[in-house]
Amino acid sequence: MSIIFSYLPCLAVLTSPAGGYEWVVLVEETVVEMSRKVRVLCWVMTHPGNHERKAKHVRDTWGKRCDVLLFMSSKEDPSLPAVALKVEEGRKHLSKKSHEAFRYIYEHHLDDADWFLKADDDTYVVVENLRYMLHDRNHSEAVFFGCRFKGFMSGGSGYVLSREAVKIFVEKALSNPKRCHLRGAAEDMSMWECLHSVGVKPGDSRDELGRWRFLPFTPENHLNPGFFVGKYRWLWKYTFYPYKEGPESCSDTAISFHYVPPNLMHALEYFIYRLHPFGVQHQPSISAVVVKPLS
Ligand SMILES: *[C@@H]1O[C@H](CO)[C@@H](O)[C@H](O)[C@H]1NC(C)=O
C-alpha cells in the first residue's frame, strides 16, 4: 500500500495496487468546504391561512439557511416571500400546486441553484446536512432524494431534485399528461410517477450506516421505540429500506423531520445550533472514505 498526499491539503489518497482499489480519504475540513459550495433552493408548500401561523416560522428558523427560499401559495406576500401560483387551494389540488411550483422555479430560478428542495410548512430541515449529502452528487444527473417509500418519496419530509431533474420534469413530464397524472392530495405519488416517466432516478439518501436522513415524523416520535404501532403501524407497510426504531432510527447527519409545529422548530434551532455541553468539543474527523477501482 502506498500513501500519496495530493495537492489539496486535506486529501490523502491511499492506494492498494494488489487489491486493485484506492481509498480516497477526505478529512472533515475539505468536506465542509465542498458542502458550502452546494447551492440549494428551498420551496415550501403553504397557503394564505398558514403564512402567519406556520410559514414565517420556517423563514425565521431553517429557511434562512437556503440560498433561495420561496413559499408557494395562492397569495403573494413579499415578507416571506410567497408566490401567488394560479392554483386552487385545498388538499385535493396539492399535486397541481407542486407541478406549478416547479414550473415557476424552472421559469424564474433554474440558474440560481444546483438542487431544489420541496418541503412543507411543517417540515424542519438541517440545511448543512442536506448540502453535505449532496456535496459529492452530480446535479447534472436526473436524480432525486428523499424519504423513500415503496412507490414515492414521502412528501412531508421533503425531497430534493437535481437541476437536471427539474429541467426534464418541466420540459418533458408536464407536457405528457398521459404518463404524468395529477393525483389530488397525493402530490408525492404524482411527483414520483411524473419523474419516473422521464427517467429521473430515485437516489439513496441514507447515511453510511444505513440510517435514515429524511424522517417522516418528529425526532421524539422516531427516537422513542414503540411509536409505530396502532395508528402509525402503516409505516412498516411503506418502508423501502430497513427501518430501526429507537435511538438508531435517525442518522447523526439527519436532514429533515416532518409534523414539526412552530414551537418545536424554535426548540430544534436551539438544540442544534446553540446548546452544547460545556467542555465537550466536537472532534474533526475523517468523514468520507471513497473506495474506487484503480484506473
Ligand atoms: C455529471 O453528469 C453529467 C451528465 O451525466 C456528466 O456529463 C458529467 O461528466 C458528470 N460530472 C462529473 C464530475 O461526474
TrEMBL record:
Which major enzyme category is it?
Answer: transferase
Q: Which residues form the Fringe-like glycosyltransferase domain?
A: 43-167
What cofactors does the UniProt entry give for this protein? Mn(2+)
Query: What topology does the record note for this protein and the membrane?
Result: Single-pass type II membrane protein
> So what does this one do?
Glycosyltransferase that generates the core 1 O-glycan Gal-beta1-3GalNAc-alpha1-Ser/Thr (T antigen), which is a precursor for many extended O-glycans in glycoproteins.
What InterPro entries is this protein classified in?
A: C1GALT1/C1GALT1_chp1, Fringe-like_glycosylTrfase
Name used for this protein in its record: Glycoprotein-N-acetylgalactosamine 3-beta-galactosyltransferase 1
The organism is Darwinula stevensoni
